Amino acid sequence: MKTIGLIGGMSWESTVTYYRIINETVKEKLGGLHSAKILMYSVDFEEIENCQSSGNWARSAEILSDAAHRLETAGADFIVICTNTMHKVAPEVQASVSVPLLHIAAVTARRLDEAGVPTVGLLGTRYTMTQEFYVDVLREAGISVLIPDENDIRIVNNIIFDELCVGIIREESKMHLLRMIGDLRRRGAKGIILGCTELGLLIRQADLDLPVFDTAVIHAEEAALEALRWRE
Question: What is the pTM of this model?
C-alpha cells in the first residue's frame, strides 16, 4: 500500500470527510482490520483564506508547496490537496515535489465521463466557479460547465465561508442551493458537481434526482484506490 500525503485544514470540517472515506474505502477493498497509510499536514485556514481574499496566490502556493515537500520528505508516495479552490496553485505544488499530485478536477472529470454526463452544473467558491484553473480541466475532458448567476455565486460563496467552514449547517442555506440546482437543471445541467469539499455537509444525493458528484468523496475514494493501485 502506498502512503497518502494529505494537505488538509481547508477547512478541517471537510478534511474529516477525507480521512473517513479513505479509510472506509481501504477497509471495503481489503477487509479485516486494514486501514490507510496516511500522512497529514493541516494548514491554518485563516492564513490561506487571507491569501485568497487578497489575491496573494503566490504566498498560498509557497505554503502548500512547503506542506507537500514536508509530506514527501516524511514518506508520502503522492499528494492530495483536500480542497477544490487551492488547486489554483496545483502546478506550483506539483513542481515542488517529485511525487505525483492527485488532481481533484481530473478525477471528477473521469467520474463524469464514466457516468456519461456531458453537461454539468458547478457549485463552489467564487474562485472555483469563475476562474479557469478548475473549469478548464473539465472542459478539456469534453464536459460543458454551467455556473449560477452573479448574485447566486455570492450567496454560495458566503454559505461556504461564513457557515460550512465553521461548522454551521442551516436549512435555509440548503434551500438556496437546491433552488440554484433547479435553475442549473433548467439550463441543461445533467448532473451537479459539489465543487467545494464542504458542500457535501449540506447537499446529498438523496436530496436530488439529478446525479450529484461530491468532490470530497470522489477525491478521497480515488486517493484510496491510488494507494492500493486499483481502478474501478
Answer: 0.92
